[in-house]
Structure formats: C-alpha cells, structure tokens
Amino acid sequence: MIKIAVLGFNGALASAITGIVDMLSLVGVSWQRIQNIPVHSLFQVKISSPNGQPLDCINGMHIAVKHSYADVMDADVFIVPTIGREIIQTLEANTALITYLKNIPTPQKSIAANCTGNFFLAEAGLLDGKTATTHWGYAELFSHRYPLVHLNRNLLISRDGEIYCAGGGLAWFDLALHLTERFYGIETAIQTAKAFVYHRDALQTSYSLLNIAKAHQDQLVKKVQIYLSDHLKQELNFDDVAMKFNVTNRTLIRHFNTALGLSPHQYLLALRIEAARKYLEETQHSIEQIMQHVGYSDASSFRRLFRKKTGLTPVEYRRHFSRQIIHR
Predict the structure, then answer these.
(1) Which PROSITE patterns does this one have (predicted)?
(2) Cα-based torsion angle of the residue sequence 225, 231, 232, 235 in order, rounded to the nearest 10 degrees
(3) Does the pLDDT at position 91 exceed 90?
(4) What pTM, to 2 d.p., does this model score?
(5) What is the CATH number of domain 219-321?
C-alpha cells in the first residue's frame, strides 16, 4: 500500500486538504463498492501538522490532526495543499514546513503540491532548475520570486523527477488521478474518475496524463519542451526548431519518442490542448482569446481537435470544469 502524507499548515485551503484525502482514501474503494466486490484500500492517507496540532484553515475552518510531520516521515508521497491566505505572510509563518520539505529524501520519495502550495516547494529550493506550474493568477509573483524555476503556466500538472505541481485551485482532483495512474495504472484512474462522476474522457480517449509530464533525463528534450512552452502562441516549424538546437528534425523526433513516447508535433498538440484546458478551467477568457493564447487561428480546426482530444467542445468543457475560486 502506498503511504500518502498531507502536510497541513495554518492558512491552508481546507477543501484542498479534505478533498484530496477523501479522494485518495477512496481510490479503488468506491469502485469496488459500486461493483459489489471485496473492498481494499490502495492508499493510506494521513493529515499532519508541524506538531500534530489542529489546523487553522481559512474561512473559519479547523481540521483535527492526529499526526505531526515527524510521525509521517515514512510516507512514500508528501502533498502540500493550497495556500488560502496571503502567500508571502503564509510562507513566513510556516518555516517549519519549509525546513521539513528540505529534509525529505528525493528521489526516493515523491513530493507534490497544489496551486499556490507550489510556493512552498519553490521556497524550499526543491524546484530550482526544474519545470513547475502554479495558479495562473500568481504566475508573475512566482516567476519574480523564484527565477531559477522553469515555470510553465500552461500545464495543469507538471512532473520533474519525483516533484509534482498541480496548477489551478481545484487541480488536486487532477493530481489525485495522476498519482493514481502513476502507482496503479490508467484503468484504476479511469475507474476512480467514474466513481466520482468526474468527466475526464481525456484520460482514455486522447493521451495519458503522464505523457506530457513524464519524467526523463534527456537534456535536449527538456530544452525543447521549455522552448515550445515559451513559444506556444507562434506557428512553429520543427525543422527550424531542430536547427535552433543544432540537431536534425529526425534526431529531434528520435529523442522525443524515446523520452516521452510522442513525436515533437504530438507533444506540441498535447501541450496546446493542455494549455487550452487550463485557460477554460481557470479564466473567463473568450474561446477566441484562448485559441490565440495556445497558437490557433482557425476556430473550426481548434474546436475539432479539442473535441477529439477531450470528448467535449470548449464550451462544454468550461461548463463542466470551470474552477473560479476566491483567495482570502
């Protein structure tokens, strides 16, 4: 059984704690109950705080805690929830968490954070030189404060080695599915999404969540991934892209296929759809504005590709997954 430790702190968003705890605790369980088969849990999930004290979350919410950070050091995965209060003040008030994160042995252990919780990972230096994402509304603050981090604001989920970052405020749902897929496979992730009545056709009909966030050590591919993210709006020719990195297009294709199981062109399409999903979930930008942000000028081809990859039109997707939240 995989052990999960949620590293709570004062000023957290309560739903980002209770939501991922409920979901991961019920991975496998809900589906087994629906199918009337014997029940067994796949994840053991514990909420912790610096000294095992109750958590003072925002909006008057308090969460009882049975475990201190020291009690959960044997966990396989550590998750930092969303910051709900003012970010810098919350970081300064929770130095114990930052110190704890610095002492978690990686890559033996996996570390994940949701939304603004990714500021804690960056503050601990865990994201230096790595690709990360965060909530779009705080991307400028993040980039200014952590210049050594390769911030890709277009991703819902980023993975670099054993460090995971989830983007939007409620992206802990995607993070939970990602971790489920990573440890127990795509079918279990799909069963979990169905059990929670979560319309995530993209898990099955397009590409695995792991594909564009797949960990690898190919430095050429990493550099090109950053370049593609930075030039997402532009019309790109991969002969020109390959030339920028002093390789042939054939060499670039071979590196991408080996590292990610995708060609550069497939990766770019997946990245653009992922970016469009994030804009639809987290902003009120018009479909036309989103198209331009992700490098499309033809509305019909964009809608056709988006539906092919997600099973929904952009309008339908926004209706299902809009994630406008308020931070206080």
Answers:
(1) HTH_ARAC_FAMILY_2
(2) -120
(3) yes
(4) 0.72
(5) 1.10.10.60
